[in-house]
Amino acid sequence: METVALHTRLREGREADYDRIHARIPAELDVALREAGVHSWRIWRSGRELFHLVEVDDYEAMRAHLATHPANIPWQAEMAELLEVEDDYSGAEPDVRLVWELP
Predict the structure, then answer these.
(1) Number of neighbours of residue 76 by Cβ within 10 angstroms
(2) What's the CA gap between 54 and 60, in Å, rounded?
(3) Distance in angstroms (rounded) separating the CA atoms of residues 54 and 6
(4) Per residue in 11-33, is it b (16+ CB within 10 Å) or e — as a string?
(5) pLDDT greater than 80 at residue 77
(6) Where residue 92 falls among pLDDT bands split at 50, 70, 90?
(7) Taken in order 17, 76, 95, 57, is the CA torsion positive or negative?
(8) In angstroms, rounded to a whole number, what is the distance separating the alpha carbons of residues 60 and 101?
(9) Phi and psi angles of residue 41, each rounded to the nearest 5 degrees, phi first
(10) How is residue 11 annotated by DSSP?
(11) Distance separating the N- and C-terminal Cα atoms of the chain
(12) Matching InterPro entries, A to Z (predicted)?
């Protein structure tokens, strides 16, 4: 299993919308994430900054599975309205690297 950290940023003034929409994700998206090997996905927000921690069997395979999944496409369209940079699924590598951990 992989643990992947991600960072995204909200558009200015969209914080409350993001919180409201994430209060309950669509059931079909929950199923799609689990089918893609996601065990856990947690998101913290500090102002407009979003920090994700994903525990997944294979991050790259998850991205490939979700890129064209019918439950994910409308979700990503909704997120594109809220995020400063839209996720176009063109890359699989997360941009947050582990630099230290307490053993």
Answers:
(1) 17
(2) 12
(3) 8
(4) eeeeeeebeeeeeeeeeebeebb
(5) yes
(6) low
(7) positive
(8) 23
(9) -140, 110
(10) P
(11) 18
(12) Dimeric_a/b-barrel (IPR011008), Rham/fucose_mutarotase (IPR008000)
**43: exposed, middle or buried (Cβ count in 10 Å: 0-12, 13-18, 19+):** middle
The residue with tokens 């069997």 is 57
Q: Is 39 helix (H, G, I), strand (E, B) or coil?
A: strand
Distance of alpha carbon 32 from alpha carbon 39, whole angstroms: 12
Rounded to the nearest 10 degrees, what angle do helices 15-22 and 72-82 cross at? 160
Q: Cα dist. 87→30, 41, 63, 66, 90 in Å? A: 18, 16, 11, 12, 8
Q: Is the pLDDT of residue 56 over 70?
A: yes
Segment 29-38 shows an average pLDDT of 98
Instruction: Kindly state the tokens that stand for 89.
Output: 């699924």
Q: Which residue has the tokens 């630099």?
A: 99
58 Cβ contact list (under 8 Å, min separation 6):
2, 37
